[in-house]
Amino acid sequence: MVTTKRYHLAERPDGVPDDDTFDLREVELGEPGPGEVLLDIQYLSVDPYMRGRMRAGESYAEPWEVGQPLEGGAVAEVVEEYGTQFEPGDTVVGNMVWAEQHVANAAELQSVSVGDLPASTALGVLGMPGRTAYFGTREVLEPRAGDTVVVSAAAGAVGSVVGQLAKKQGATVIGFAGSDEKCKIVEAEFGFDACLNYKATDDYVEALSEAAPAGVDGYFDNVGGPITDAVFTQLNVDAHVAVCGQIALYNEEEVPTGPRKLGKLIETRARVQGLLVGDYATRFEKAASDLAEWVGTGELAYCETVTEGLENAPDAFVGLFEGENIGKQVVKVE
Amino acid sequence: MVTTKRYHLAERPDGVPDDDTFDLREVELGEPGPGEVLLDIQYLSVDPYMRGRMRAGESYAEPWEVGQPLEGGAVAEVVEEYGTQFEPGDTVVGNMVWAEQHVANAAELQSVSVGDLPASTALGVLGMPGRTAYFGTREVLEPRAGDTVVVSAAAGAVGSVVGQLAKKQGATVIGFAGSDEKCKIVEAEFGFDACLNYKATDDYVEALSEAAPAGVDGYFDNVGGPITDAVFTQLNVDAHVAVCGQIALYNEEEVPTGPRKLGKLIETRARVQGLLVGDYATRFEKAASDLAEWVGTGELAYCETVTEGLENAPDAFVGLFEGENIGKQVVKVE
Predict the structure, then answer these.
(1) pLDDT confidence band for B253 (50 / 70 / 90)
(2) What's the pLDDT tens digit per position in B300-322?
(3) B281 touches chain A (CB under 8 A)
(4) Cα B240 vs. chain centroid, distance in angstroms?
(5) Which domain holds residue A66?
(6) What is the pLDDT of residues A68-110, one digit of tens each?
(7) What angle, 0 to 180 degrees and rounded to 10, lies between the N-to-C axes of helices A204-211 and A225-233?
(8) Does A231 touch chain B (CB under 8 A)?
(9) Domain assignment of residue A291, yes or no
(10) A15 with A87, same domain?
């Protein structure tokens, strides 16, 4: 019998999640049954979309029930297996829980193949955020050579990759990020043409019209809210807007309001489209292979923010909404 | 020397245009010069987009200057010509002014070819609104067989045609209109599957979820505002939204606000796109020919609301925002 620490949803948060939201329990796990594996979790992913799962109402992801374990993407080492394709010692990635150990159905796990890169990249640049950026850029943003593309949350796990992929297509890329330190990394490491620190900017429209004097042809939106409002005012004719996240709004319990934008779409004939990475599942291998190649050649840079210890997973999660991470936020469990 | 009555922009309206907005002048016209024609205007089109031209700020159409004549699509008879392709007695359509007579550059006019239909149809079902519906449906809404499509301003010049074209594609079509009389026409004449009288409905979301229990796959938006807010709550995965007009907002002088919608686009991966008919100019003849054929075979029904007398053009225009017209609103000048 194995004992593990595991986070459960204590209650649904009202606004920003806090200590009352998370319940760290000591639980006993059963032995793995046929087709199952016992896992030592190494890295746990915390992601903005999880805020939606804490809400009872409809979201694009199924809501978590109060009292149930919190789920999430994770990288783990196989400790025991019962008639599966894995061996003890294998490193696997898949949907797990916020815990140190976990028993999972082996059919829902994949072997991690990240070459010489850290296993945590299977949760970041080579994992869900990398794939989101890959398909969001390729299938929805569709940057054209010469476009001016704006990326919000430019220092984040998705935004940092989107900007680099848009540059590869010949676009000029402007980022929004939340500190001078982040903006420096966005420009120096991720190669954006410019990055605006929105926390040091009073007038986003003015700042943007200076940084992008020819207007905005593409916008990859990870945040929603006032930054997005400002970008919409600068859209050019035939602009493409990819809506990937609305992190600025995820802790709002009332329906958020803001300036109506549809009239601008008539003026510009702009196209606005939402995206969820799961729609592209048939091509995940191709994406991972391309992304790994570009990381290998140095064409694609990435960052990770690693928080140590399962007990700090709630802080790492809440920190996403404060912009405390640069690049992919993971929790190193042990 | 010819004398004509002509409306000029007296001042920019603040909110709903009123008597102070319009200045009816008696003006003398010069003789037509080389390449010009003198026209007797028969029918004048008043359209919601003209409200945008009364505003100094940016819109998709160039603003009118205070003191200048109001422009608009019109049908006219050629009275005199000076070395043009037209003969006296020809009926022409093009951009003219709110007047009884007008001198125009013949190169910017087209012969009216509406077969057995009234010449006014060159301003309606066979003119700009018909073409807007044609390309908006075909290129932006893209209804698929089995879709549930919602059309706002369903009794209007554009909406009435959109609904019929979506039906042709095999969609179930639900309209929103502003009176029981209109809804009756929308269902009986235009063949919509249902029409909701929004002025007799307290809860648009509830009414829509009853009329469209399987959700909304396509939305052709002519109005914006609360009706559009309600439709967005009902969008299905992969929905298409065509944004053609926002008449509910055109008299607002402040930036209108409302519920933020981008999060819904992530959930549904819906595509929202604005449209302006001028983008499809290379195919206007094909559109007019298709539309005329469908009217001829009885596949496409249309309505017109005719206001008599140039002096009533301002009332006809303001009436658009009150929903006083059914189908295309024209002014019969003489």
Answers:
(1) confident
(2) 999 999 999 999 999 999 999 99
(3) no
(4) 21
(5) 2-120+305-332
(6) 999 999 999 999 999 999 999 999 999 999 999 999 999 999 9
(7) 50
(8) no
(9) no
(10) yes
Residues A182, A267, single domain; the answer is yes
- Measured between beta carbons, the chain A residues lying within 8 angstroms of B221 are 262
Q: Note the Cα B129 to chain centre separation in Å.
A: 5
- Distance from the Cα of A239 to chain B's closest Cα (Å) equals 10
CA distance B104 to chain A (A): 28
Query: Phi and psi (nearest 5°) for A297?
Result: -80, -5
**Strand-pair partners of A172:** A148
Instruction: Say yes or no to pLDDT of B295 above 80.
Output: yes
Q: Which of A246, A264, A269 sits opposite B262 (nearest CB)?
A: A246
* CB atoms A260 and B58 under 8 Å: no
CA distance B331 to chain A (A): 26
**A169 and A216 part of one domain:** yes
CATH number, domain with residue A192: 3.40.50.720
Amino acid at B39: L
Question: Which residues on adjacent β-strands are paired with residue B37?
Answer: B81, B104
Whether B65 is in a domain gets the answer yes
Q: Which residues in chain A touch residue B259, judged by CB atoms under 8 angstroms apart?
A: 255-257
Does B267 reach chain A within 8 Å, measured CB to CB?
yes
**What ipTM, to 2 d.p.?**
0.91
A221 has a chain B CB within 8 A of its CB: yes
Report how far residue A156's alpha carbon sits from residue B7's, in angstroms, rounded to the nearest whole number. 56
Taking CB atoms and an 8 Å cutoff, what residues of chain B touch A60? 266-267
Which of A263, A267, A279 is facing B269, going by the closest CB pair?
A279
Task: Let me know whether B132 and B113 are in one domain.
Answer: no
Find out whether A177 and A148 touch, Cβ atoms under 8 Å.
no
Predicted local distance difference test score (pLDDT) of residue B211: 97
Residues of A in contact with B248 (CB under 8 A): none
**A23-41: b or e for each residue (b if 16 or more CB lie within 10 Å)?**
beeeeebeebeeebbbbbb
Q: Is B227 on the interface with A (CB under 8 A)?
A: no
Q: Which residue type is seen at A164?
A: Q
What chain A residue is nearest to B247 in terms of C-alpha separation?
A: A263
What CATH number does residue A60 fall under? 3.90.180.10
Cross-strand bridge partners of residue B327:
B156
Kindly state whether residues B179 and B51 are assigned to the same domain: no
pTM over 0.80: yes
Please report the pLDDT score of residue B58 as a whole number.
Answer: 65
Q: Show residues of chain B in contact with A225, CB under 8 Å.
A: 260
Cross-chain residue pair A265–B273, CB shorter than 8 Å: yes
B278 touches chain A (CB under 8 A): no
The structure tokens 């019962």 sit at A82
Q: Which one of A62, A223, A262, A279 makes the best mutation probe of the B interface by having the most chain B beta carbons within 10 Å?
A: A262
A172-177/A148-151 β-pairing = parallel
Same domain, B155 and B214: yes
My answer on whether B168 and B265 are in the same domain is yes
Q: Give the residue ranges of DSSP H helices in B80-189.
A: 128-135, 159-168, 180-188
- Number of domains within chain B: 2
B269 and B149 in a common domain: yes
B141 neighbors B163 (Cβ within 8 angstroms):
no
Q: How far apart are CA B171 and CA B194, in angstroms?
A: 12
